[in-house]
Model the fold of this input.
Amino acid sequence: MSAVRDNVSRGRPYAVVGARHGKPDALDAMAGLAKYADDIALPRMLHAKILRSPHAHARIRSIDTSAAEAMEGVHAVVVGAEMPTRYGVIPWTPDEQALAADKVRYVGDGVAAVAAVSEDIAIAACKRIVVDYEVLTPLTTPEAALAHPENKIHEANKHGNITKQVQLAFGDVDAQLANADLVIEGHYGFHGSTHAALEPHCSVAHVDGRGLLTVWSATQVPHYLHRELAKVLEVPTHKIRVIQPQVGGAFGGKSEPFDLEFVAAKLAMKTGRPVKCLYTREEVFLAHRGRHPFEMDYKTGFAEDGKILAVDAKSILDGGAYSSFGLVTTYYSGQLLGSPYVFDSYRFDSTRVYTNKPACGPKRGHGSVQPRFAIEVQLDKAARALDIDPIELRRRNFVGENTTTINEFHIGSSGFLECLDLVEQASTWKARHGKLPRGRGLGVAGSTYISGTNYCIYPTDLPQSGVQICLDRSGRVRVFAGTSDIGQGSSTMLAVVAAEELGVHLDDVRVVAADSDLCPVDLGAYSSRITLMAGNACLSAARDLAGKVRQAVAKKWLCQKRDVILADRRAQRLDDPDVWMDITEAFILAEVEFGTMGSTGSYQTPREDVHGEYRGGTIGASPAYSFTAHIAEVSVDEETGDVRVENIWCAHDCGRALSPVLVEGQIEGSVYMGFGETVMEHHHVMPSGLRTDGKRRDSGPGKEGLLAHSSLLDYRMPTTLDTPNLFAGIVEKPDPRGPFGAKEAGEGPLHSVIPAICNAIFDAVGVRVDELPVTPAKILAGLRAQRSGGA
Amino acid sequence: MTVPDAPSPAPVLVTLQLNGEPVSVAVPPHWTLLELLRYRLGLTGTKQGCDKGDCGTCTVRIDGEPQLACLTLAVEVRDRHVETVEGLGVGGEPHPLQEAFARVGAAQCGFCTPGMLMSASAYLDKLTLEDEPVVRREDIAQALAGNLCRCTGYTKILQAVEEVAQVVLDRQRELAESTTEEP
Done:
């Protein structure tokens, strides 16, 4: 495809791409005009609340809703039996129901829902629903769930409580380990964390005058929501319209359907009135789908020069009550381990286990943040043992460019070495590393991430992304795309691509996004796919239109089409800047010549060398990979065990920064989020009758699986006062697969911040925290062990 | 007929100044200012992120002070002056903070932004050359410590406020210098 060939450079500087612009619609948010789901109010709208299970594991014997239904102001009640179809965002693992029909599997599982004239009445009515539970033994740890395969959390599951196991091997790991000069073994624990987007999930549903069920929802996957609504509600997709309004952050926490969307839709269908369902903050924590807790055993073999000869990784993933994206998470835990390094051999064995806790899923850096922590600390330990500078050790293992990894993923461009150089310089590493006083330390780590996946979640030959563009006689451009802007700026990205190609300003482009009735399909905001995929679709449509405009202008100027360029609201002679016309005139000329100006573009992953030829070889295969390096600087108070992260330097290779200001924002936000989950945050569910203070509850059994924090205060996400100085450095290594060479920027910059902090702590005081999160207690325990001569 | 556990007591009349305009409105006595603004008056710029005083997205200014609308009962703002993000710009022009936030990319999802702007504007309004001859990032961080943001890592938010604060102090300095020059 010529668009792909021309993606990187067209031999002239860009007018919009790479400029330091903000978002064209930013002032709407500033003025409070942007409409989020809960800002929608429709006439006669009802409010829905969901009754949730107080038990972590129980069978539902019966549900009596009569008292709730009898209440004044209550218009409808819905229970799980009315929506029995099982669904799941991954079509191979449909293990969820809109509301639990036969069994509840975590404290917070939805059981019934009420639509009433006010939220107060809906809450009161929920209290009047009588659910008869047969309480079952809860399994709140993977160990317990594996030890009790007879106590199945999902009866239909094949292998006890194992939701997925993946074992893959590349090269001869045992032989390489035997040959290694150094073998590092380590056990690593990664705790759970959650997205905590500031906007709680919210959905509004309404059946319109033409019988179209319209669902507005704070989702980052409107297309998958559309499909699952059709399946569960048994309504054909052409009778459903899904609209994603402005979304107040998501980070993976809104990347699959949730009970509130089914509930609002079903209740709207039952009552004939609009219904809104808004989560409380506690419900957001319960809905979760956050970072999986991992227990990891790693064995890594090195040659004397620091080269990685073998990696043997074993991981247990604590999945929580449902599959969510877990099948993919289990693959990612090993498939994304190698790059940015070369492994001569490696194997992984990952097992995901059901437990009676809120389900885990994809949080920013899905499935690859936990293994990245383990491998990067392993590398740090090796660098110490081999007396090699840890940056140098990483350079020696660099995977390279235009190469294929041992698990058969194609790496195009890579700026990993430049990332290492940049953070090394910015942090003045050479002058300071190893020379800081005790209590202060520097640590480094590196990582890679995908720019979308080569394959859709469900099998299809359809494009992954479609974009439609129309030109207006006033010189304005309209872009229609199914893309989901969740704050990351995907609509700005589309505007940049369109404006660059069509020679208009950013303000001249209106992006209409994420409305299934108005926009072509895009699969959604996950796996860092939109810039590469929708960007290419947009580029293709815009290039087609720009060609026609240039042709029409060339006809008037009696010159060749190639002599006409479009930039800065003008059509201009390439060889004579004094010959130009207003872009509006150019658009009108094109419309006279060709009729109404519209075009579509679509993106489909390349069909050559797209994946490994083995089972699972498609998962983790991406058109292009981003690269990141972090250096963290910490100070550790040896009296209190308190770790203060002072500075974090991050350099990220995003191919081409289409909007550098937005890319910096993605880097800063990623680093912040990774920092938070290293030293402050913990999505913690109480394992067995214990309160957060460690004392036994008086109320006895039945309280296992309670969330230890139901508020943002207890969850402890960092404030302005906690957040370290963040340095965001952009490295540009354009990849021919990306629009203008662009790769992802939204998730990669999170990964290696976590091991960088832990490596810095070791540099500061010689204590390894291999079990996250970092807490003062763990630091003090490490220091005590150090003083008593232990490791 | 009302049921005992579904509170619907008689509404009470609240009169207040809202973004400079007098407003009289009947609200249930247990309603918060946040509910009044969002669900009765349609001023949805003020956001609800946690409903229990943790996140700061509902920050408004009451008689100039930044306050959480979710922890303030509507009846508490009787005869007081409430400012929301909708009232921040003047004469159709965005407030300098709004302009700076937009320019430097201080809003990603935008959900914390209204509350952040209200806290920042309160900080700016108190900024005087006498108390604080230089802009200090720590002071800004302190002023915004009650407003959580999950997208930005605060970097660009602090930068935007710092830039505007610098302009405010520079203007005050110019003013002070021009008045001393003219006896």
